[in-house]
Amino acid sequence: MGPMLESSAELFSSLYERALAWLAHEVTEPGLIVDAGSGPGVVSCLFAETFPGARIVAVDGSEPLLERARARAERQGVADRFSTIAGELPDVLDELDYPADLLWASRSLHHLGDQRAALAAFAARLAPGGTLALMEGGLPPRFLPRDIGIGRPGLQARIDAVEAEWFTQMRTDLPGHVAVTEDWPALLAGAGLKYTRTHTFLLDLPAPASDRARAYVITSLSRLRERITDGLDAEDLATLDRLLDPGDEASLHRRPDVFVLEAHTVHTAVRAV
């Protein structure tokens, strides 16, 4: 997963850079930034670039991914103010030496069964006046036109419905799952923080797709195909299989109309001084 996660995060670098520049208007001169659920550290290193006076701590449950994060920090010349902690969120945050001035959680919260309790734990690790930045939600991705010339038009809209059901089941199956209404400003306020603002950032990579963007689309739909056993009818599954077949003239490997259009939403809240 390491190379795939790293390549995907690099593809989204322009989106993350705009999100971090937006955060920089609210968070001035942070001393400690924690990337909770950092993966291979692409965004962690962008934080080091955006905030040159900050110490960065990348936190993740996978030590191999953190190895990649440390190697990236070394390559980018920020290893002297970059460290990692391996362990499961949110409890691993107790290992921080100091409270965070900025805690970034990018699509890691929804992998935790009790999101309300996890937000409270995140809030508890903030310094007075510290900011929690939560990337959750946005819009489903689009990779292809509505009518792609094979199968029924509207394939991705139908995939969205299947993905929503899969996501609900994934959440339900998590240990300690607690259902919550995903009103992020209200949940942040419930964690004792003062909600400040929300902004959505767009990644718009038009057709014809670059090799990296095309690889991302192929990987995304391949992983989706692996976990889909119900929800799509036989015609849609056959269309998806054609899209993933490198030998098919209509496949994602050859199509000139492949693009990437995604929207990710960031919510921020501050701990009282």
TrEMBL record:
InterPro entries: Methyltransf_25, SAM-dependent_MTases_sf. It comes from the Bacteria. Residues 33-130 form the Methyltransferase domain. The keyword Methyltransferase applies. Keywords: Methyltransferase, Transferase. One of its GO terms (molecular function) is methyltransferase activity. The keyword Translocase does not apply. Pfam families: Methyltransf_25. GO terms for biological process: methylation. PANTHER family: TRANS-ACONITATE 2-METHYLTRANSFERASE (PTHR43861:SF1), TRANS-ACONITATE 2-METHYLTRANSFERASE-RELATED (PTHR43861). This is SAM-dependent methyltransferase. It comes from Streptomyces lomondensis.
